Structures are given as structure tokens and as C-alpha cells.
Amino acid sequence: MVSQIALLAGDGIGIEIMAEAEKLLRALDIKGLSLIHADCGGTAYHKHGHPLPKATLDIAKNSDAILFGAVGDPSCDNLDRHLRPEQAVLGLRSELGLFANLRPAKMMSGMEGSSSLRANISQNIDMLIVRELNGDVYFGEKGMRQTDTGLRQGYDIMSYDEDEVRRIAHVGFKAAQGRQGKLCSVDKANVLETSQLWRDVVIEVAAEYPDVELSHMYVDNAAMQMVKAPGQFDVILTGNLFGDILSDLASMCVGSIGLLASASLSQGRLGLYEPIHGSAPDIAGQQIANPLAMILSTAMMFRHSLDNEEIAAKIEQAVAKTLADNILGRDLGGLASTSEIGDAVIARL
Ligand code: NAD
Ligand code: IPM
Ligand code: MN
């Protein structure tokens, strides 16, 4: 059986880190894996007039998994929103029903010195952020209008329905069952109706998982707790916006945003795998981006879409050895280039 992997590099460092993921896939030389490239983001806008051309969406739909680099191009910041590079990733998430975003943040041995936190605080971090990805303020009605008094007003409607909360809650509880059995649901139920519903539904779903210890935390406190005592978290279950913000925060607790991978899953087997970071225009084209988040996303692809735990573990071990051998990019205080890091992982497979 052939598995088709779509490679959507995107923009900026997305292109450089995707080259390392592709090199790794070719080095693994797995029978029955076919790789197909497609344009997205600003690159696709400049070439084809749209950040997610139909041809790219079709390739994604017809693949077994999607590896996604990053999108974002400052030259597109003033385009109509539907033409901006970010619509590529948002469009894929909604068109493919990728509602469950898993963002693990684990302290890897030897990385304590790179964390923004003191080593005694960062040493035990092992959390999984389960972020809802198809709803919330991201996908509600939005627009610009004028108030009665003639002022410009921007608006974005935040909402969740109970089915959307229920299905991501199940993902969170199941993930907790496979880990330390603790789930912390993060919301803002003290202020937002959306969050009140979120909390009510999570409590209902919890009845089906008596073996999971459920707690609730307001998002502002969660941000504070994440830097005060991040070791307390196992699974964090949260909405689209809060999950976006908290995962960037979690990345610096474990050393660098260049280390955080993610899986975006649907009800079926198809998944999209991408680093949590963006196209990093400030360092693009210099071969100084850390490709490990992309490479670890590739490992997640083998685990969740290709049913190949053996290869997933092999990649993760090679990454751990690369770090242990002090082959570090600038983000981690080293001097290794993007491709040197990619080569080092391959040499340790
Ligand atoms: P960013 O994640 O691109 O960069 C934030 C900071 O982290 C920058 O200083 C950057 O140099 C650094 N950084 C990020 N990845 C790194 C890596 N692998 N190695 C070393 N350093 C790294 O966030 P931003 O600057 O806010 O956004 C830039 C563009 O990316 C925007 O257009 C944004 O919309 C887009 N974006 C896209 C995605 C995605 O494609 N999924 C995610 C986040 C941001
Ligand atoms: C992420 C990014 C995206 C998000 C943007 C680029 C739409 O920040 O994947 O974390 O907000 O989800
Ligand atoms: Mn983000």
C-alpha cells in the first residue's frame, strides 16, 4: 500500500525546515511512501493569486497525511483577509475537519538551561495541550462596521456549540487516560458564556471518564501557573484562542518555540502535522531556524496517521540524541545551522 504525504512548505522558514523533514523522510527510505509538494500561503498567493489554491486543497484531501511548514508573509499583511497567507492553514483546518490539535511540551534532557524558567521549575514539564481547532472566535462572524456615532468598529463573534465542545473533550479525556490521568480544562467561565457552556459540557463528558481527575482553571491563572509550576499539568484542554496563546507560552518553558510540534486531527485517519511556530520573517532565508519542531511533527505523523510507532519513536530518539550531543541552533544558544541540525538527526537515526 502506498501512503501519500503532502508537503506544504509555505513561506519563510517553512521552506527551510520542510527541506529538513523531506531529507529525513528520504533517508528513512520507507517503502510505499510517496511525497508530493504543493504551494500554500504567501508563496501560493504570489504564484496563483490565492493562499490555498484548489489544486493544493485537492492534493491535501487526497493524501494520507499533510506535513505543513509555516505560512506568513509581511508583504501580504494588508491584503483582504481571505487572501492572506494565514488563510491557508485556517482553510485546511476547517475544510478537512481538523478539530483536534495536540501540542505536546516536554522538557527534554539537557534543555533546562534554555528554558526561560529556572531549572528546578522547568525540570518536570510534561504536558499536552489539547486545543480545539475548528471553532471559537477564529471562525465566528467577523467584520468591520461603523457605529451609530460613526466610529470604525471591528468585531469577531466567539461561540462554541455543545457538540464542538463534546468532541474535543473526548479527545482530551482519552489523551489523559493514556498519560498521567489528569485533565485541566482551561476557560474564562467567570466572564464568557462560551466558556460557561464549555465548562458545563466538559463536566458532563467527565462522567464517562471516572478514571481521569478533572480540574478547571481560568485562562489568566493558567498562564500564571504555567510559569509558576508547569510540572502540575498533564493534559490541558482548551479552546482555539486560549490554546494558541498558551502553547507559545509553554514552548519557552521547555526551551524554544523551535522545539514544539503539533498534530491536527480529524475524525478519520487524515491529519496535518506542523510546528506551532510561524514563518519567522525575522530569521527567514538565513539557515538559522531550528528544524526540530518540524522533524518532531513528522514523528507525530508516523504515530497518528501512518500507524508506525516504531518510526515515530526512532525519530524522537534521534532528536533527543542530537540535543544531548549539544548540536543546537541559535534559539538554544548554539551555532548549528538548519541543515546541520537536520543532518545530525539523520546521522542518529
Ligand atoms: P513566529 O512563530 O513566526 O516567530 C516568533 C519568534 O520566534 C521570532 O522571533 C522567530 O524568529 C522565532 N522562531 C519561530 N520559529 C523558530 C524556529 N524554528 N527556530 C528559531 N526561531 C524561531 O511568530 P510571528 O513572528 O508572530 O509570526 C510570523 C508570521 O507567521 C505571521 O505572518 C504569522 O501569522 C505566521 N504564523 C503562522 C503559523 C503557521 O503557519 N501555523 C503559526 C504562527 C504564526
Ligand atoms: C498557530 C498559528 C495560527 C493560529 C495562525 C497562523 C492562524 O498561530 O498555528 O498557532 O492562530 O492558529
Ligand atoms: Mn500560534
UniProtKB/TrEMBL annotation:
Keyword list, A-Z: Amino-acid biosynthesis, Branched-chain amino acid biosynthesis, Cytoplasm, Leucine biosynthesis, Magnesium, Manganese, Metal-binding, NAD, Oxidoreductase
Positions that bind NAD(+): 278-290
Chain positions of site Important for catalysis: 138, 188
InterPro entries: IsoCit/isopropylmalate_DH_CS, IsoPropMal-DH-like_dom, Isopropylmalate_DH
Domain Isopropylmalate dehydrogenase-like: 4-345
EC number assigned by the record: 1.1.1.85
Pfam family, one: Iso_dh
Cofactor binding note: Binds 1 Mg(2+) or Mn(2+) ion per subunit.
GO cellular component term of the entry, any: cytosol
GO function terms (MF aspect): 3-isopropylmalate dehydrogenase activity; magnesium ion binding; NAD binding
Biological processes, Gene Ontology terms: L-leucine biosynthetic process
Pathway: Amino-acid biosynthesis; L-leucine biosynthesis; L-leucine from 3-methyl-2-oxobutanoate: step 3/4
SUPFAM superfamilies: Isocitrate/Isopropylmalate dehydrogenase-like
Binding residues for Mg(2+): 220, 244, 248
Amino-acid positions noted as binding substrate in the UniProt annotation, renumbered to this chain: 93, 103, 131, 220
Subcellular location: Cytoplasm
Catalytic activity reported: (2R,3S)-3-isopropylmalate + NAD(+) = 4-methyl-2-oxopentanoate + CO2 + NADH
Coiled coil: none
Cofactor(s) this protein cannot do without: Mg(2+); Mn(2+)
The protein's role, per its UniProt record: Catalyzes the oxidation of 3-carboxy-2-hydroxy-4-methylpentanoate (3-isopropylmalate) to 3-carboxy-4-methyl-2-oxopentanoate. The product decarboxylates to 4-methyl-2 oxopentanoate.
Recorded family membership: Belongs to the isocitrate and isopropylmalate dehydrogenases family. LeuB type 1 subfamily.
Binding partners and assembly: Homodimer.
This protein's name: 3-isopropylmalate dehydrogenase
